[in-house]
Design a protein that fits this description.
With 173 residues, this protein is an all-alpha fold. It has helices at residues 16-41, 48-58, 64-84, 88-107, 120-135, 153-171. It contains six helices and no strands. The protein is globular and about 55 Å long. The protein starts with 15 loop residues before the first helix and ends with a helix.
């Protein structure tokens, strides 16, 4: 007579939380990467680098094309990083910094709600990026092999701090 079948430990099983976090990372990250690709390459109905550069120049960023490239790369690489769960705190910082710039230069003067041109959208992006850094990218992430894979206060502080410093530098150039 055979003995009882051993079940793998709970740690080896994926949970609904693992899959839910993956869903959030993929959806949010790929949409942000697409948003950056609109700026950089004119994909998905975007204006491309030349048009985005002119828009950035009108906001006071000079040279506009350089800042448009930085913004587009921040959104594209930050989004891809979150989608893959790769260098998660750094990816979150890129998006947070970009959104701080958007809030200060474009949306803050219009209040909270997006319908009035306000900060609602940028706050949501920043909160999701920071939340992922705090929680960690989860089981289905490239970062699972690194110490920041579990998220935590240090990862969140890094993302928020670096994003804030990057935004402050950009806004003062």
């Amino acid at each position: 007579m055979a003995g009882p079948t051993a079940h793998p430990p709970d740690v080896a099983r994926s949970s609904a939380a693992d899959w839910g976090l993956l869903l959030i990372r993929l959806t949010f990250g790929l949409l942000m990467a697409g948003h950056g690709a609109q700026k950089l390459f004119g994909l998905f109905g975007g204006g491309g680098l030349a048009a985005t550069g002119r828009a950035f120049e009108a906001l006071g960023y000079r040279p506009g094309a350089v800042f448009a490239a930085i913004g587009g790369l921040s959104e594209t690489l930050g989004g891809l990083g979150l989608a893959m769960g790769f260098l998660t705190p750094l990816a979150a910082a890129a998006l947070i910094g970009m959104m701080i710039n958007a809030m200060v230069t474009v949306t803050a003067a219009h209040g909270l709600w997006e319908t009035d041109g306000g900060v609602e959208y940028s706050v949501c992006i920043s909160a999701v990026a920071l939340g992922i850094a705090l929680i960690g990218p989860g089981r289905w992430a490239v970062d699972r092999f690194f110490r920041w894979a579990s998220g935590g206060w240090a990862a969140g502080a890094f993302a928020l701090g670096l994003g804030g410093v990057g935004a402050a530098i950009t806004l003062n150039l």
